[in-house]
Amino acid sequence: MLKKARTLSDEIVILRILNNRMLLTEEEKKHLYYLEKGFEGEVMFDKLTEKLESENLTLNDLLLEVNNSFFQIDSLLIYQKTLYLIDVKNYEGDFIYKSDGFYTINGKPLKDLLAQLKRCEFHLRQLLQKYGYNFPIEAYLVFINHEFTLYQAPENRQIILPTQVNSFMKKLNSIPSKLSDRHMKLADLLISLHQKENPYVRIRKYEYVEFQKGITCCSCDSFSLSIGRTKLTCNNCGYEEEVEIAIIRCVKEIRLLFPDRKITTNLVYDWCGGIVSKKMIRRILLKTYKINGHGKFSYYIYE
Ligand SMILES: [Zn+2]
Questions:
Q1: What's the 225 CA to ligand 1 centre distance in angstroms?
Q2: What's the CA gap between 171 and 194, in Å, rounded?
Q3: Which of 53, 93, 190, 300 could be stapled to 263 by a disulfide with Cβ–Cβ 3.0 to 4.6 Å?
């Protein structure tokens, strides 16, 4: 049973906006690609755990802290007797395993994935002990992408290669399990301990003036839109979106990028590049948000 769903991280969403509205460095582009790819793989794995019929609680995407160390869990499956800790990798292409770890086909060493997994398992165990739980943990590294090949793959039962994913899921599905309140409590505890502020986030400092203003097409990211009475049409791909939805989308962008800024009609008008009239923006904002103050000094608040 899904207990905690996965959502796109603020880091990905912010980097996507930055990528649309300013020039990213090659390094930043690579980082965004890496995050998107990772997320895509995790979602692929979620589709498999959703189908599990054995009794378990699935917690996706946990960021936890114990003894001042942060650790991230892609998926945690709570079964009656055992916790399954899964690290999903969406690597694509050819890789080699040598005695000291994973390498690209060109000989470039990767991060030590098994050590990372061990560290994660160790911290989770510490955290469980801290709260008086003593479940055994089984940790796995799941390579989800069918285009992933690992030469000289070691006989390591913690490594699940793409050709083994199906049998791994079958194994999970055949685990006899009966959950109790205690499991529910553990799941609730872990969710309550989930950290919202990720200390590993890598985003440059930015200023409002650096952003290209305008509304972007939510299908192809183009800034070239035509406005009709109630709809915006993309001149590049033809995608149509209600003006109202596009404006709210822009407000969400501003709130995420500049959490301290007050949302005013003028600010939203400027962010949208002047394509939608202030009158229309005001009408839309009044429908969704409450207004605080009067005239020039009024701004919108959200509950
Ligand atoms: Zn478009």
A1: 8
A2: 28
A3: 300
Q: How far is the CA of 20 from the centre of ligand 1 (A)?
A: 13
Measured in Å, residue 232 CA sits from the centre of ligand 1 at 10
The number of beta carbons lying within 10 Å of the beta carbon of residue 209 is 6
Whole-number Å distance, alpha carbon 224 to ligand 1 midpoint, is 8
Calpha distance 139→126 (Å, rounded): 15
Give residue-wise pLDDT tens across range 112-170.
999 999 999 999 999 999 999 999 999 999 999 999 999 999 999 999 999 999 999 99
State in Å: Cα 218 to ligand 1 middle. Answer: 7
Query: What does the pLDDT read at residue 64?
Result: 97
User: How much distance in Å is there from the Cα of 282 to the middle of ligand 1?
Assistant: 25
- Please state the pTM of the whole predicted model: 0.89
Give the Cβ contact number of residue 186 at 10 Å.
21
How does pLDDT run across 248-266, given as a tens digit for each residue? 999 999 999 999 999 999 9
Kindly give the distance from the C-alpha atom of residue 235 to the centroid of ligand 1, in angstroms, as a whole number: 7
In single-letter form, the type of residue at position 170 comes to: K
Label residue 303 by pLDDT band (50, 70, 90).
low
Residue 78 Cα to ligand 1 middle (Å): 42
